[in-house]
Structures are given as C-alpha cells and as structure tokens.
Amino acid sequence: CIDIMELSENEDLRQFHSHTLKLFCALCALGNNRVAHALCSHLDQSQLLYTIDNQYLSGQLREGFYDVLISIHLETGKEAHLMMNNEFIIPVTDETRSIRLFPDDSKRHSLPGVGLSTSITPRLNFTPPCFITPKRDQPLFSPQIPLGTLKEKAISMLTEAVQGGGAHIRDPVGGSVEYQFVPILKLIGTLLIMGALTSEEVRTILLLIDPSVFGDGKEEEEQTAVAEQGAEKEEATSNEEKAVEAGEEESKEAKQPPKGLLEKSLPESVKRQ
C-alpha cells in the first residue's frame, strides 16, 4: 500500500494515476452525467475538496484532480452557458429598468462584470450524487457540489498564490509555478463562465489580477483626503511635524499594494490561462 504523497517518488505509479484521472475526465465528456454520478463512488466530494486544497501533491496529480472536479461537477453548466454566449435576449423587468449607465452619482464606470445586470442564462441545476439509479425518463443533472465552499477555497488559494507565489519561490505548490497557478485559474475561469461568482467575488479576483488597473478610485480619494487633513495638522509644532512625517512614511510603506498576477514574471502557460 502506497500513500498518495509517496507517488512523487515513484514515477511509474504517478503516471498511471495521472492517466486514470484523464480517463475519468474523458468518460464525463459531452454531458455524460450518468457516468459522472457513478464516478462519485470513486471520488467523493470530501476527497476532491481535500485534494485541490492540498499543497503537497505532485503537479500532475494536482492538475488531474482539478480537471476531474471540473469535468464531473461543473462542465455541464459551463457548456450550457457557453451555448448561449451569443444570445442577446434581455428580459424586460423592473430590475432591468433600474439599471443605469453609471452605478452611482459619481458617473464613473464600474469594473467589468460587476454590478447589477440581467440576462437570460441557463440555471445551475444539480442532483445529489446517486451511484445506482434505475432507468428514468428524466435525465440526470450534474452531481451536486457545495459551490459556496468551492468558491471560498478557490479565491483563498488564488490569494495565497498571488501573494506568496512566483518564480522566486524555491518549492512552489505542485513543484512548479505552472502547476501552482494553472489549475486554480482554470477552476475560477469555469466558475466565472457559469455565473456562480458574485460581484464582490469578481471584484476580489480582478484586484488580485492587476490592482493598479482594477483598483477602486474611491480609495484613492479617501487617501488624498486623509493626506490633506494630515497636512493641516502639521502646522502645530516642530516636534509634531517630525512625528507626523515619520507616521506618514510608515503608512506609505505599509500601504504599498502587493503585486498583482500580471505584474509577476510567469510562464507562458499561466499567461495564456
């Protein structure tokens, strides 16, 4: 009996398990939800949620488990949304009439994909995993998975990867920068296509990608207002001036924004993803 963590030392068994995961993905292709439900008896939700969060898996297995998770639980919903990608049918409702060009009175455009919107898109339908089912007229939906937990894990892992990952890390998650970023970006891209992410979650992801471009202008106004108030208080005494200047220097150093994903030196595969 070999533990899954020991597969990094056995290349033949690692290749075998990697090809097995690819086989599972191929069996679930083209919306084969009946096979997807059967595979849930081999890979249940707790196992998948644990493996995608594990930082010690080898790169091939890490990528394979992410692909299996997407193929079994999310691929059908993703393809349904992609089929209506070019449909421009806007439902006329009270919510639609309340949408304006600008989100507030400041007349500034918000981030792309963030804010109030409406469209006709397929609903996310899931069915509790059932391994053995009789013949039924109604087709099965994708096996159910807790989307809330999955989104939290995906965003937290992307945050950790952006803030603590890069080419300068000696031992990145998965053994390379490619295996660290590509599976997470693929999962988040699938959730975006499915429309499962809220506006705040999309805003968080965009800030992780490039905070200098997708940063909020309100924060800059607040910082300038605080700086103006600090400049008025500097006129007290010379000792207070020195203290204020020292405090401003410390705050500037502390408020330096971390580098976004696009500001890092990354492999070409990560940039394409």
TrEMBL record:
Entry-linked InterPro entries? Ryanodine_IP3_receptor, RYDR_Jsol
Q: Which residues form the Ryanodine receptor junctional solenoid domain?
A: 17-273
- Write out the transmembrane intervals: none
An example of a Pfam family matching this protein is RYDR_Jsol
Q: Where is the composition biased (Basic and acidic residues)?
A: 230-245, 252-273
Which residue ranges does the record annotate as region Disordered?
218-273
Give the protein's recorded name: Ryanodine receptor junctional solenoid domain-containing protein
Please give the organism.
Cirrhinus mrigala (Mrigala)
